[in-house]
Amino acid sequence: CCDSVIQNGANSAVGQAVIQIAHAMGLKTINVIRDRPDLQKLTDRLQSMGANYVVTEEALRKPEMKEIFKEVPRPRLALNCVGGKSTVEVLRHGGTIVTYGGMARQPITVPMSALIFKDIKIRGFWVTRWKQDNIHGDKLLKMITELCDLIRAGKLTAPACTEVPLQDYRVALEAATKPFIGTKQILIM
């Protein structure tokens, strides 16, 4: 079988991009989302993008996760944009965990057993620094070219958006603060 990736915040814009890019690369994805009223609708949408497994944060703690790992290898990469308890559960399943956000605004508490017995590695990633460090090499251009190729091939699309006229910015702000809204609010001038 092929490698796999696990991520929390899978319905975020970055999470959706990860699903599509991993799918194009032949990687399996395990995608963690918060439980919500429209869970099946969101699961179906992520799977239509190429998600192999969509599980709730609560399901990560259950024995059923073992069934997934009978079908795919344990992830060598875990992506974290949430922090807090969600990350602790994700890191139990991933080899190297890369944190690029902290939506929960809670620290990551790492069990010693994960570091010692599972050889978990923890990294941070800030795309601005990565771009600064790679501005003069060919890595940045190569990445942009590869992403553009995926977009042209129809394998990478933008997340769902709601266009709102600038004069109705209050409507967009109100929608953006609601939980489980599902779309990005784009102000149109």
Automatic annotation (TrEMBL):
<dbReference type="GO" id="GO:0006631">
    <property type="term" value="P:fatty acid metabolic process"/>
</dbReference>
<dbReference type="GO" id="GO:0016491">
    <property type="term" value="F:oxidoreductase activity"/>
</dbReference>
<dbReference type="InterPro" id="IPR013149">
    <property type="entry name" value="ADH-like_C"/>
</dbReference>
<keyword id="KW-0496">Mitochondrion</keyword>
<comment type="similarity">
    <text>Belongs to the zinc-containing alcohol dehydrogenase family. Quinone oxidoreductase subfamily.</text>
</comment>
<keyword id="KW-0560">Oxidoreductase</keyword>
<feature type="domain" description="Alcohol dehydrogenase-like C-terminal">
    <location>
        <begin position="13"/>
        <end position="131"/>
    </location>
</feature>
<keyword id="KW-0521">NADP</keyword>
<dbReference type="GO" id="GO:0005739">
    <property type="term" value="C:mitochondrion"/>
</dbReference>
<dbReference type="Pfam" id="PF00107">
    <property type="entry name" value="ADH_zinc_N"/>
</dbReference>
<protein>
    <submittedName>
        <fullName>Mitochondrial trans-2-enoyl-CoA reductase</fullName>
    </submittedName>
</protein>
<keyword id="KW-0809">Transit peptide</keyword>
<dbReference type="InterPro" id="IPR051034">
    <property type="entry name" value="Mito_Enoyl-ACP_Reductase"/>
</dbReference>
<dbReference type="InterPro" id="IPR036291">
    <property type="entry name" value="NAD(P)-bd_dom_sf"/>
</dbReference>
